[in-house]
Amino acid sequence: MRVAAIAGGTGAAKLLRGLAATVPQRALTVIGNTGDDAEVWGLHVSPDLDTVAYALAGRLDTARGWGLAGETFRCLEAMAGLGAETWFNLGDRDLATHIWRTHALREGVPLSVVTAELARRQGVAARILPMSDEPVRTRLRTPNGWLSFQEYFVREKALVEVFEVEYAGAGAARPAPGVVEAIGDADLVVVCPSNPVTSVGPVLAVPGVVEALATTRAHVVAVSPIVGGAAVSGPAGALMRARGLPVSPAGVATAYAPWLRTLVIDRQDDGCRPELGRLGVTAVIADILMTDRERELALARVVLRCTE
Amino acid sequence: MRVAAIAGGTGAAKLLRGLAATVPQRALTVIGNTGDDAEVWGLHVSPDLDTVAYALAGRLDTARGWGLAGETFRCLEAMAGLGAETWFNLGDRDLATHIWRTHALREGVPLSVVTAELARRQGVAARILPMSDEPVRTRLRTPNGWLSFQEYFVREKALVEVFEVEYAGAGAARPAPGVVEAIGDADLVVVCPSNPVTSVGPVLAVPGVVEALATTRAHVVAVSPIVGGAAVSGPAGALMRARGLPVSPAGVATAYAPWLRTLVIDRQDDGCRPELGRLGVTAVIADILMTDRERELALARVVLRCTE
């Protein structure tokens, strides 16, 4: 069975780890969000691609949900000593990834090739694709003006109000080589439990991705990032509200309705079934909080069974 | 008293530390070698400028003679894990300097401005100038072909034969802003005990520097990097031989003769006096091995007394 997964960061990493333990990694293609990519000290950082690669390589700091396990921050401290901005936490070993990526990009290597090579060098057998080789950047209009996603999420700790979200550059972007094919050729497409607005939204904003999702012969399943009226983690609630979506499984289904067949929701959201039905989406009930490895695996099995 | 010093790395750092403890740092201008600058993983590394800045900031690893005290190498280890070349040892805190410099250079800031700013941010009151804002690169012809200085010195551990040395780019380079003025306005110009071929040589190869040294009203003093027929440290001996210079204080004096007034040599080289005299250079005898802080200070005082 070939699986294509659309993924953000932390939440996606857990489900992907479960999937990768259930199907052979080679059968798994991850289409990663690059809308929150950032340039930090002149280095190209791709937080979501790295979180996925680190998770599949068994290197992720699972307590924090980002970065490498056993990380140190000596370079960051020295940067602070030089008076540089240090609100974006780059660990010493994590820096190797960003330095390597930046160097390759400056030599003209496309992000998709860099990403595949970084995954391979970390021993990841799954295929990790950025949604696009062209820059697409999520920007949020707040009382302090337009912010990049990392300025909003890390620097401002997602505490400022968001009036509007845009995906700058999306109009001119093309899906990275392999993205449309992976969706078209898959038996199962999984939309990971990621923020629909700032993790999945940028992927969907790349022209051609929604068309691929609407026409694939694959079963398209999403796992809700919303449980009991609130996001499992991160600012998905506030951002869905900013986009006029209810903060509920129905809001998630609304965002994905034209092409989504199944939404896996938590037991406590059982009452949403009829509303999802009206949107043409079948609800599958499960324990969707992945609080440990066993639950990651269990949820992965639920998702894989959706094709049956 | 205004002092201008031409400096390489390790040996220069010791004398400069002594000078900076004897004259006010503000009176000291260091003209640093950039011939051994290197691009490592896409980062612009200026080993000699950094060694000088770290020494004057009290941050230098004095046991190794390069890099920062108390350094760690986690990023380097992660780079090795990614399969990158790791023969050039970049420490985690040292990396902050290179990332900061590279970012500024890519934004179009000249190296001289970047260098001054990095020194200021490390609390260094002395002025540190690169010899030139344009790239000049020392290259060495060996049985393995042309090598950069770092390939020769660090990767090959200076163990390969050198047939020829060139300073690529020197012809088109101009002295960085302030270099000619610092030499012209100084009361004392000190050529630090650095390798005449690969540390001082590149500085002298920048058009205008030798003219400034030949016409300055300052007393021009060098400290010999050669004691008893051998270099105090590093490959100066082999490189002087490759350039047809005897490995002796007389060889040093020959390289600097047209503009050098005084050469400070070690007690054990007292016999060189007459030969130096024939080259028009006055010998000053001292204990020139700077094995501790006291000796750095003592030698600095000897150098400063040369103007009397």
Describe this structure in words.
2 copies of one chain form a homodimer. The first copy, chain A, is 39% helix and 19% strand. Chain A has helices at residues 10-20, 47-56, 74-81, 92-106, 111-121, 149-155, 179-185, 196-205, 209-215, 236-242, 249-256, 273-278, 293-305, and strands at residues 3-7, 28-32, 38-40, 43-45, 127-130, 137-142, 145-148, 164-168, 188-191, 219-223, 226-227, 230-231, 262-266, 282-286. Chain A is α/β, with parallel strands linked by helices. Chain A is globular. In chain A, helix 1 links the parallel strand 1 and strand 2 (28-32). The first copy, chain A, has one domain: CofD-like domains (Rossmann fold), CATH 3.40.50.10680. The A-B interface holds A 41-43, 68, 72, 74-79, 81-84, 91-97, 99-100, 102-103, 106-107, 118, 121-122 and B 41-43, 68, 72, 74-79, 81-84, 91-97, 99-100, 102-103, 106-107, 118, 121-122.
